[in-house]
């Protein structure tokens, strides 16, 4: 997959994208991350990318022209790429959205900054807007990093094991079960015996129950939309959740 990020701060990305799993994915040519600096595309004498908002108000707004020209240049080299603006009005980034985006051949991410982006740039240069959460960041660069990391996990080969992304929190609408490693006994705190039994069916059952329990305890709202089996409903009933019963 090719991901091109349009930003006025390209220097923010390299350390993140050169480390750990993303760094290995780039080395293995599974992920091609490109950075496009918007500033050189500005027609302004001083290469400005922002200006005062019409109608007044605090802060500055990113100008449409540099973004339009930068997007046109990148789109020419990535025809058919899905163009995404990281902004607060978009649909929420979820596991389902990440899996959907991972199926694309290429993405172009636009990072906003200051008080926002001239609406005309969004109207002409963007296919959709995606938000990583209901909070304010100083710019879209951090949001772009989060989206890339989330999407990369669903690109075949990036995690090494095809099962890894499907066994983690939110992959099936629930939180993940507890994980343990050596030593078996840590100052009197021991690993659950079932995980040492070698009985894979019992281990799967334990993990499912613990996943349901963790979701019930920390994010009960997720249970309303999770794909639950009759056995799951039975477990939740045993866990004394009044809103669920066998079905």
The figure for the number of domains is 2
CATH homologous superfamily of the largest domain - what is it? Answer: SPOUT methyltransferase, trefoil knot domain
Profile the largest sheet: 5 strands, parallel
Q: Can you give the helix content as a percent range?
A: 25-40%
Strand content: 15-25%
Structural summary, described in words:
The chain is an alpha/beta fold and 247 residues long. The chain has two domains: 2-152, Alpha/beta knot (3-Layer(aba) Sandwich); 168-247, Trp Operon Repressor, Chain A (Orthogonal Bundle). 33% of the residues lie in helices and 17% in strands. It contains eight helices and nine strands. The chain has helices at residues 14-17, 20-27, 64-77, 95-102, 119-125, 141-152, 200-218, 230-238, and strands at residues 2-7, 32-37, 50-51, 61-62, 82-92, 106-111, 128-131, 185-186, 189-190. The strands form three sheets. Strands 2-1-6-5-7 form a five-stranded parallel beta sheet. Helix 4 (95-102) links the parallel strand 5 (82-92) and strand 6 (106-111). Helix 3 runs parallel beside helix 5 and helix 4 packs across helix 6 (141-152).
């Amino acid at each position: 997959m090719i991901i091109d990020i349009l930003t006025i701060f390209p220097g923010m990305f390299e350390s993140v994208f050169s480390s750990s799993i993303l760094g290995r994915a780039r080395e293995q040519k599974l992920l091609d991350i490109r950075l496009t600096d918007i500033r050189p595309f500005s027609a302004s004498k001083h290469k400005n990318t922002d200006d005062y908002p019409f109608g007044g108000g605090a802060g500055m707004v990113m100008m449409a022209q540099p973004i339009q020209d930068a997007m046109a240049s990148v789109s020419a080299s990535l025809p058919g790429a899905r163009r995404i603006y990281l902004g607060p009005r978009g649909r929420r980034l979820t596991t389902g959205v990440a899996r959907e985006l991972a199926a694309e051949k290429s993405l172009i991410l636009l990072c906003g900054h200051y008080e926002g982006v001239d609406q005309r740039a969004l109207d002409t240069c963007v296919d959709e807007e995606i938000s990583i959460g209901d909070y304010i960041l100083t710019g879209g660069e951090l949001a772009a990093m989060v989206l890339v990391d989330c999407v990369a996990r669903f690109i075949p080969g990036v995690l090494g094991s095809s099962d890894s992304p499907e066994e983690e929190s939110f992959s099936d609408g629930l939180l993940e079960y507890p994980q343990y490693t050596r030593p078996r006994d840590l100052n009197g705190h021991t690993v659950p015996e079932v995980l040492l039994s070698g009985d894979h069916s019992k281990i799967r059952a334990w993990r499912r129950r613990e996943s349901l329990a963790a979701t019930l305890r920390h994010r009960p709202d997720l249970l309303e939309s999770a794909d639950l089996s009759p056995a799951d409903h039975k477990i939740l009933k045993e866990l004394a959740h009044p809103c669920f019963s066998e079905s």
